């Protein structure tokens, strides 16, 4: 049976970043279920850009898509008001971004396309079972890292469910030529269908519409909001594809789990995601770095918990920002005030 110092489950930004740093002097297996890109707006936020800049990493042009974005159109379907705000995002192909992160791993990191099936403790480590290529395999790991997102198999098998809010992110792709609108990025609020947000964004020849909805009747609410957007002026045609995934939204310290007893959780597997914007790439990278810095400590679990304290509080404090974004009364006041908004050329008052 093959043995590894660490098995990392999940090859997104969290898992790939951890494997890249820790793989310089450890034998690591990165287990990723390829071919299952996460439904994601695919925007690299300033926080994520800063996290990557720490490594002097530059992005190859092959992962970028048109158009590049420096403003967001905020739409309130309850009042039919809209405002534009300056935002500096990098518009990219999320699947290509993840593949690129895995392409720059050290040669010593073994990458396997497979699905984690079982985790059992044995002899001071773990027997990790996974399916790949139509067969089952088992390896031994001294330590285990769960970087497998909101629906983490590692977390559920080792610690159980998080005490946090859960949503289903649903996203559809449309051919942009069938949607006669000028390319832009929008953030949509509609308290009748969700207490979270939705979005539209152009990516090359496609228009993406997506949103986060309560699990119960999520598809019905998604379609209901889509119909309201049609009335607002979005002429959606037939979708090219539809995708969905679980997304978390932390609200209290119990919304996070860093792991324990040889198992570490990073990224959204640990609950690290912004409750206001649902942005998670920056937290994925920063938590991966924190774990790498903690492994050499006498008590790595304690060190990792301490190193992510500021991240946890930063995410929880974003719930204060949520008041101005998601509470209809406060959102209406903010949008009516026009504070920090952009007045479009030739435009009068906002709708």
How would you characterize this protein structure?
- It is a single chain.
- By secondary structure, the protein is of the alpha/beta class.
- The chain folds into two domains: 3-41 and 93-164 and 250-320, FAD/NAD(P)-binding domain, CATH 3.50.50; 63-91 and 165-249 and 323-342, D-Amino Acid Oxidase, subunit A, domain 2 (D-Amino Acid Oxidase, Chain A, domain 2, 2-Layer Sandwich).
- Helices cover 28% and strands 32% of the residues.
- The chain is built from nine helices and 17 strands.
- The chain has helices spanning 13-22, 46-53, 94-103, 153-158, 218-232, 281-294, 300-307, 309-326, 328-337, and strands at residues 3-9, 28-32, 43-44, 69-76, 81-91, 109-113, 115-122, 125-132, 135-146, 165-175, 185-189, 198-203, 206-213, 241-249, 259-260, 263-265, 341-342.
- The strands form two sheets. Strands 3, 4, 5, 10, 11, 12, 13, 14 and 17 form a nine-stranded mixed beta sheet that branches. Strands 1, 2, 6, 7, 8, 9, 15 and 16 form an eight-stranded mixed beta sheet that branches.
- Helix 1 (13-22) runs parallel beside helix 6 (281-294), helix 6 packs antiparallel against helix 7 (300-307) and helix 8 packs across helix 9 (328-337).
- The termini are far apart.
